[in-house]
Design brief:
rod-shaped; 0% strand; 154 residues
Amino acid sequence: MVQLQEIVDEHFQEPQPGPEEDDADYTDTDSEISEESEYDPSDETLGERLYALRDIVSPQTRGYITNKVTAAGNAVMSVLTFSGKTLWVISSSALLLGIPWALAWSEEQQVLEMEKEMKMREMGGDLLTAGTHDGASTAQQLGNALGPETKPAL
């Protein structure tokens, strides 16, 4: 059977070098510090107070939080960058394609209005020269020009 024997190292038997413990010099310094200290908590900002609390959170947790905040910041920056580029593409496309199309469409509308006006003038000219058409009166020609569904008012 195996027997264990404790061997004491001589190094641990010697007292440590340094000042001798003297309990007579020990005093409660809390009251002295609070009275003699020039610390004023009203001068401290919220940021300084939060920075002082950093040691309460473990380094692993601080690293985790830092990584998450950095990842969220990068995601927001990516979304904003993509949105800005998309807005640039849409606005420049609208300027390069939309404005010429709108101008051409408005010109086409003007041409249609001018054609309508020309037809109205021709109709008005035909009404003024009513005596030359088969002896029909101006009211009859106007009725024919407006269509068969219109009837003269009584």
